[in-house]
């Protein structure tokens, strides 16, 4: 009998190698290859065209009862989920350590349990006493949540099989779970994949809304095999800086709703509080307008969020290479925008250091922020503030044209509701709003002329 070959599996991407090496050939990560049990290879003589169970096919228009979403009682959590928990769905939630994942899920579990639904919270990282201490601090001790501290998937599923399936099941975290049918320590690729498969199968068969908490790597990606994100229905990211009080819950994948909705929370002494008006978090709140500051109405799903973009220009006296520092925006897009300003508008940024920041730690990926960034840069360069209580939006092309953006009218109406008086953007009738004084800009040069003429 031939000796089975050893294989090594990358803990970052799941790539397989037949010899150990310091760097994974697939994802280029270092020291991530771990020896794994050899895979069973079936003989090619086995014919899979017979001996199985017949699969039932149905028509797309077959009448049936649609699953009813279960509200968690946290409106921001439900918004990010697309309207609530779907029975039989599997949700993977990732986030930095200490960001508040366990606190959020404990609050949601308590609210669902208080509505009279069965809730099970399984902690693999903390003892039951530690979770009870957190619940007491949050004022949730009276919630009828079934709490357990366990890491064996067989023990968990055996226990769940002896009781009525709960409406809500939380596993914190999937990297601590262990299956005795799979070789390897908890957290390895095979263990994470196998444990998640068994838990998801239980949730699908019994109509249980399952939430799996996942660790993240230093890059912010969910640790473990990438196939884990394909196995679940919803992938959520809980973001924020621990030095700030607010947190953003964002859906990266959602089979039951939109992926661009966000939920905003603020960390307080009694836990996470919902933020109904997140725009106030990302605006400085000062009365006097300063040079290098522009307000941009961003869109997160169906919710407009106003954020402040800050720019600082520092002129260099020597021939040193100027720095380009960006926080909250794409560095490559800033370089492109600076090139357009120099080429199409005649401005000189080559001998100056450029610092760009999105206030409050907010992250922007919307191309509609181009005009707001350009306005902040020109304002900082000229050391002249932009018009008071004004918002800016529009995508800028390489030719210097200000192009239309999506949902311009909704953005402008939200700005008017928050007390802004003027709006600047593309010369598009759909973007213009009667709620504020809107001025269309056809070219980026029009912006430069308007800022330079501001007293």
UniProtKB/TrEMBL annotation:
SUPFAM superfamilies: P-loop containing nucleoside triphosphate hydrolases, Ribosomal protein S5 domain 2-like. Belongs to the RecA family. RadA subfamily. GO terms for biological process: recombinational repair. HAMAP family: RadA_bact. ATP binds at residues 95-102. This is DNA repair protein RadA. One of its GO terms (cellular component) is cytosol. Residues 66-216 form the RecA family profile domain. Residues 353-455 are annotated as: Lon-protease-like. The keyword Zinc-finger applies. Pfam families: AAA_25, Zn_ribbon_LapB. A motif (RadA KNRFG motif) lies at residues 253-257. CDD domains: RadA_SMS_N. DNA-dependent ATPase involved in processing of recombination intermediates, plays a role in repairing DNA breaks. Stimulates the branch migration of RecA-mediated strand transfer reactions, allowing the 3' invading strand to extend heteroduplex DNA faster. Binds ssDNA in the presence of ADP but not other nucleotides, has ATPase activity that is stimulated by ssDNA and various branched DNA structures, but inhibited by SSB. Does not have RecA's homology-searching function. GO terms for molecular function: ATP binding; ATP-dependent DNA damage sensor activity; damaged DNA binding; hydrolase activity; zinc ion binding. InterPro entries: AAA+_ATPase, DNA_repair_RadA, P-loop_NTPase, RecA_ATP-bd, Ribosomal_Su5_D2-typ_SF, Ribsml_uS5_D2-typ_fold_subgr, Rubredoxin_2. The middle region has homology to RecA with ATPase motifs including the RadA KNRFG motif, while the C-terminus is homologous to Lon protease. PROSITE patterns: RECA_2. NCBIfam families: sms. Keywords: ATP-binding, DNA damage, DNA repair, DNA-binding, Hydrolase, Metal-binding, Nucleotide-binding, Stress response, Zinc, Zinc-finger. The keyword DNA repair applies.
